[in-house]
Amino acid sequence: MTLRPSFRFHFTATLTRSLARRAWPLAAAALTGLLLASPAQAQETDTTFVRLLRKNTFALTASGTTMAGPGWDKLRQDIQQSPLVLLGEDHGMAQIPGFAQAVAQVLQPAVYVAEIDKYQAQDLNRLAAQPGLPTAYNRQYSMGLSFYSWAEEFELARALRAQNVPIVGIDQVSLLATGSLFDRMATQTKNKSAKAYLRSRAAAYQAQDNATIAKGTNNFSIYQRPTALDSLRRLTQKEGPLVQQMVRDFALSSEIYALNKTQGLKSHQLRINSMKRSLLESLPAYSQPGQPLPKMLFKFGALHIGRGASLLAGVFDVGNLALNLADVHDQKSLHIFIIGKQGAKAGPNGAAQYSNNDEKMLQPFLAATPTTGPWQVFDLRPLRRALLNERLKVSNQPLATVLLDYDYVVIIPETTASRSY
Q1: Which of 59, 124, 173, 201 is most exposed by smallest CB count within 10 Å?
Q2: pLDDT, tens digit, for every residue of 323-368?
Q3: Sorted alphabetically, which keywords does the UniProt record give (predicted)?
């Protein structure tokens, strides 16, 4: 299957719970890795595969943020030995932020890298240090914190801030953050008429995005005509460096979103390039030249954190950059794919039931996970070594990519949906 030009918007749409229902099927297709799929068997029957799978499957018992059992013992040992830990998830599942908290308690990261933009991260750092949920902020900027507009995700952010862990966002400006970004621009703008104009635009764009969410359409305010972006540049050309940077970030994001309508692959590649640049630009604040990398915890959609060419059109994503950074410093990175087998998750229009039982890229792991009981932890590294040494045959190309890209797969038998606040 080839990547459809409209995919970039649809994939981004899965990052929030309130976007158009038509976004969901394409995003689900991407998550399953069908973009790289060749005809595949429903179940791998190679005896080496079956033997290694059984030998490297471990149970994990989860209760909130408390993890136990041989699966957790195995993970904990590797987390302690890996300064860079990357969690790749299927968004909207309430159990995953608790797992991330448990990982953070073991890792004790110096920084948390999130799939949000840097301006959202600034707000999240501030709000997570305050008591209570940021309901007033969410009323003003609906879904303005992306995933962290869900209660469980925000509690993860609060727990990280309680450990004095800074939250760093490296994504492009969010589809739903135009209103808050223009308010931020206005606050930093010195010229009174420009300040008033930016305030009025912030209110208008927020109203437009709220209506778009309610109607389930794709009329978001971040889609700006080139002439409108030029006008914004002229309006702010005499402002300080902070405003200038906001304008550049907004213009780039607008162009990436617009490009998706005609060139989906190029749009996606530009987004990934931007995230990798942002990660590199963020590192000097937390590391010293000639010193090891600080401990870092990443949590992104699973497609982003693979070691090599990703399940999405073979793009080398953030996970590959993290692996290379660790290699340069003679350190280790750990790449964990965590997903539910079935249950409920937050999606474009609130909570929805789902089943991943037919997903080809994870089929052997899903089949080995009962519908109730403990989580299942699969150590993929022995299977990867066998595959690379040609002692293992895998007919399912997405499954082979999973073996190459991730160190562990964690399957939750049944999930509940993340809650709004």
Answers
A1: 59
A2: 999 999 999 999 999 999 999 999 766 799 999 999 999 999 999 9
A3: Signal
